[in-house]
Design goal:
The chain is α+β, with helices and mostly antiparallel strands. The protein has four domains: 89 residues, 3-Layer(aba) Sandwich (Rossmann fold); 59 residues, ATP-grasp fold, A domain (Dna Ligase, domain 1, 2-Layer Sandwich), CATH 3.30.1490; 130 residues, 2-Layer Sandwich (D-amino Acid Aminotransferase, Chain A, domain 1), CATH 3.30.470.20; 96 residues, Glycinamide Ribonucleotide Synthetase, Chain A, domain 4 (Alpha-Beta Complex). The protein is built from 15 helices and 22 strands. The strands form six sheets. It has a five-stranded parallel beta sheet, with helices on both faces. It has a five-stranded antiparallel beta sheet with strand order 12-15-18-22-19. A four-stranded antiparallel beta sheet has the order 6-9-7-8, with helices on both faces. GO terms for molecular function: ATP binding; metal ion binding; phosphoribosylamine-glycine ligase activity.
Length: 428
């Protein structure tokens, strides 16, 4: 089959790479892609958030399946246009994508479905925000209600800082969701959905803060690893029973069945599993680690989900290896990244055994050099027999790559390697 992948980032590069390894997929295209994706498959420079442009390209290519990567095209209704034209699409409709596009909507769905999550208040002005902050106390959790590419959340013990973030959201015309703070380690679980049925992928953990020791501002993610050996037994089964399936049933009941990836951002608290947030697509950078371990051909699974036939799909098979990916970001990210620097060492990194480099914010200049064109620029994936080996492999790849101002964390998956992640005894 022919597959068209929509999106420009590292997540899309990982999806393209997995689809290219699928023996049933004869052709992969990507729009708009990036410099690394363009080395692997044909790319098309269109506006990925324009439903008409995506539909026209899918028709021109006679695509058998379209996979929508990022959240913005989903919120713009790209899937709706494809569905209306009868083209199988892996990615929820605009209405179903509200699970990510509006945190207030997601909270409403979770309440109706009795999904365990943090208590929350929606605030539309300073007075409501101040009252909610005082209700919950520190640490304060303030989330922009709309799409913010993973950077719309502030967690702080400083009440003034929390209120300042809320006011910035109000000034931009938005609302905020203020939540109780959830203790315990965080887990990302991607669940492939076809509206009724669901199949979980391997859990992963990502690292949101820009600096080591989880310091500095939030980013879209600075690295990830999978699997998570420290998770409680039957963790995935419990998430499916208490979170994924109740959410799917509620969405179907509302007339907006969810097809695509339900990304469950979870906290493993002393009171049990709690949903931090839902996303309506594969997470970046967790996808780079998770798909590096998937042995089952990806195309067939995604097509089955798009056609509502997931219960007939092949059972997922995973490599016993561990995957770690480390993001290398541009100078001054997550503020205004410095762009244009020429990247060196990519070939040397890719030549290392069990290393592959996923491109995100890259493009090619007039001379054909790969240059920095975004905030998170690359994700270096390393595979190994255990976490220590996978970390060493990933960081050996990172060491080969350089440009002026490049920055990356040195502690991705380090606590897990040292056995320092503590899961509190569960009391439901």
């Amino acid at each position: 089959m022919k597959v068209l992948v929509i999106g420009p980032g590292g997540r899309e590069h990982a999806i393209v790479r997995a689809l290219s390894a699928d023996p049933y997929v004869k052709e992969v295209h990507c729009a708009p892609g990036n410099a690394g994706i363009a080395q692997d498959v044909t790319t098309h420079n269109i506006d990925a958030q324009d439903p008409a442009a995506v539909l026209a390209l899918a028709r021109e290519l006679a695509s058998d399946l379209v996979v929508v990567g990022p959240e913005a095209p989903l919120a713009a209704g790209v899937s709706d246009a494809l569905i209306e034209a009868g083209i199988p699409v892996f990615g929820p409709t605009k209405a179903a994508a509200q699970l990510e596009a509006s945190k207030a909507f997601a909270k409403n769905v979770m309440a109706a479905a009795e999904v365990p999550t943090a208590m929350a208040h929606v605030a539309t002005n300073r007075e409501e925000a101040a009252s909610a902050l005082d209700d919950f106390g520190a640490p304060y959790v303030v989330k922009d209600d709309g799409l913010a590419a993973g950077k719309g959340v502030v967690v702080t013990s400083d009440r003034d800082e929390a209120l300042e973030h809320a006011e910035a959201c109000f000034a931009a015309g938005g609302t905020v969701v203020i939540e109780e703070f959830l203790d315990g380690p965080e887990v990302s679980l991607f669940v492939i959905c076809d509206g009724k049925h669901a199949v979980p992928l391997s859990p992963a953990q990502d690292f949101k803060r820009i600096f080591d020791n989880d310091e500095g501002p939030n980013t879209g993610g600075m690295g990830a690893y999978s699997p998570l050996e420290w998770l409680p037994e039957n963790f995935v089964d419990e998430v499916m029973d208490r979170v994924a399936y109740p959410t799917l049933r509620e969405m179907e009941k509302r007339g907006t069945p969810f097809t695509g990836v339900l990304y469950c951002g979870l906290a493993v608290t002393k009171r049990g599993i709690r949903v931090i947030e839902f996303n309506a697509r594969f997470g970046d950078p967790e996808t780079q680690a998770v798909l590096a371990r998937l042995k089952t051909p990806l195309g067939g699974v995604l097509l089955a989900a798009a056609k509502g036939q997931l219960d007939d799909a092949e059972q997922l098979n995973w490599s016993p290896l561990t995957a770690v990916d480390v993001v290398i970001a541009a100078e001054n990210y997550p503020d205004t990244p410095v762009k244009g620097a020429v990247i060196s060492g990519l070939d040397a990194a890719n030549a290392l055994e069990n290393v592959h480099v996923m491109h995100a914010g890259t493009s090619a200049d007039a001379e054909g050099n790969i240059i920095v064109s975004g905030g998170r620029v690359l994700a270096v994936v390393g595979l190994g027999d255990d976490l220590a080996a996978a970390r060493a492999t990933a960081y050996a790849g990172v060491a080969q790559i350089s440009w002026d101002g490049a920055q990356s964390r040195t502690d991705i998956a380090l606590k897990a390697e040292r056995g320092e992640i503590v899961v509190a005894k569960q009391s439901k």
